[in-house]
């Protein structure tokens, strides 16, 4: 392996790492606060509560239909800004460990007024200063919404016996291959009835925050910091033409438990900034319906719909009203401790397998 390949700094030992359980929520500040509120609602988020109504620091918390008490916190401010991402930790001892062992960590502070409450420690990247918030003790919300998983009819090869009871065989020329049919139309259609696989039009149904990404100015230092202090493990590493790693997609190392392909990614660039925050939606139907909804509302699509290579999720990126990028995604990969780390050359070909051409602004 090339000496330029970065390996996690394990000097503190796994037992000294802060244990992350899941990604939870993000913080943004918006100068045009109410305009952004309309976008976030059309994006598929639901307002939970407001603080400091009518004041210069008014704040709105938004949720999805999942169990997290909130996914997005928007605060009114003079300038648009990204305020960091939160992860839930395994125990309060992880908060205490962070304050003791991580030089850039804050003291433990109470999440007053936030849905679900809880305690938090804020950690800053040692080079670029972006924030990751560690949360413990939040009360999860009760999921009241019901989302029924749809059945799909897929074209399939003959099974052990075909439709005539004969042994499995090749289809003859011109013969129609049977489908793996799991559903059918109602025998007696009812006027105004909704077909079984038709989703109502409107915003996408957002489930959870899935991941966020940053541009960093010192990839090696950031990589060693975040993998050295936390149970973050690279799923993929991408290197430049000289063989130096410049991008990573990292998952939460939960042993044999399957987790999302990545919860945190970053790449080296000339200046630090948030690249995007990504939200999982219920299914592909609601994703595309949400795409059409945002188009009709006059918002600006960044890139999508398409399918990524790394993580393989179906993506749809949008500019919000402050020109931050937010993503809807479905059907991402899951990995666990036995999943090997991949390492490839960074190139546009590694970004997507189908979809529109990559827009130049997405690569900033």
From TrEMBL:
- Domain (VOC): give its ranges: 208-331
- UniProt keyword list: Metal-binding
GO aspect biological process, one term? L-methylmalonyl-CoA metabolic process
PANTHER family (UniProt xref):
METHYLMALONYL-COA EPIMERASE (PTHR43048), METHYLMALONYL-COA EPIMERASE, MITOCHONDRIAL (PTHR43048:SF3)
Q: State the protein's name.
A: VOC domain-containing protein
Q: Does the keyword Signal apply?
A: no
- Bias type Polar residues, positions: 194-204
Q: Name one GO molecular function term.
A: metal ion binding
